[in-house]
Amino acid sequence: MEAFACDPPQQYVEAMANLPRCPLWINLEYLSAEAWVADCHGLVSRHPRFGLDKRLMIPGFDAASAGLLREASLDFERRRFLSDAAARGAMWRALGLPPPVAGELRASLFGYENAAVPALLNALSRQPRPITVLVPEGRSVADLAARLNAPLRRTGDAWRRGSLGLRVVPFTDQNAYDRLLWACDLNMVRGEDSLVRALWSGGAMLWQAYPQSDDAHHAKVEAVLGRLLPWVDQAAAGEVGALWLLWNGIPGPPPDWQRIAGTLDALSQAIDAWRRQLEAGPELAMSLVNAAEKALT
User: N or C: lower Cβ tally within 10 Å for the chain?
Assistant: First the structure.
């Protein structure tokens, strides 16, 4: 198996060609929501010299792709955690926080440098309900500290403006990060894997794609957004779209910050509905198993 079309060394390919039986050769591509996936997923490319077949597997968001990575027990674990107040309380205490008070909104922020963050945080700070944003140590903390002139550097550091509080938390392992996503009302995430994990959480989500100098990431964001918007209430679709585009530095009409609470509520409902539909679709690991069984039997 190769990843992202990074061809194996020539000597390795020659060794495969000399085996008594041709091995299964899979190119596992990047996750994409773009329309071209339906035409490319599952295609076979024959090596011009050795006659070896390479099968293209592309993670995606529908049955025309290899699907998304999802452990069989993931949703059961999520529902069990959300129904267990003691488990949630233990998680908050491990992060140095009490459980949320009535009406409080909790959010996570794990991203690249982002010029849109101050505008969103400023809008949230004017909301009547309290909100706490948890920021794992790393690039987001350094970016926030610079943009807000805030004393944020390491785990335990905190900053407050109006009803908004920021707190730096440890950079954790995958299991702990999943629980944080499940427990938060809003998750601001980056990259492919965190996009998928935030989708499985079923809460409001803002996704930041890796910024590319030629703006190639714009098409990726717009493709994911195109999959999401049909699940958004029509009255809020424009605001959700504007917020996602702003979050990724894509030109467009600015969000109406006075409507941010309703926008986030509509986004949460849409993500949860989309999550249920995606759970009925293909799962990436099983797609790889099925491709192997089909090719080798």
Answer: C
From 198, 166, 195, select the one nearest 182 (Cα to Cα).
Answer: 198
Residue 4 has pLDDT above 90, yes or no: no
Query: According to the model, what pLDDT value does residue 207 have?
Result: 98
The pLDDT of residue 297 is above 80: no
The whole-number pLDDT of residue 138 equals 87
Helices (H) and strands (E) in the chain, counts: 12, 10
Give per-residue pLDDT as tens, 144-165. 999 999 999 999 999 999 899 9
Q: Which two tokens stand for residue 265?
A: 């509520």
Q: Which domains does the chain have, with CATH numbers?
A: 2-67+281-296 (no CATH), 74-279 (3.40.50.2000)
Residue in 275, 297, 292 with CA at minimum distance from that of residue 61 = 275
C-alpha dist (Å) from residue 198 to 31, 50, 96, 274: 15, 42, 23, 12
Spell out a b/e string for 22-50, using b for 16 or more CB atoms within 10 Å of the CB, else e.
eebbbbbbebbbbeebeeebeeeeeeeee
Residue 95 to residue 131: CA distance in whole angstroms: 16
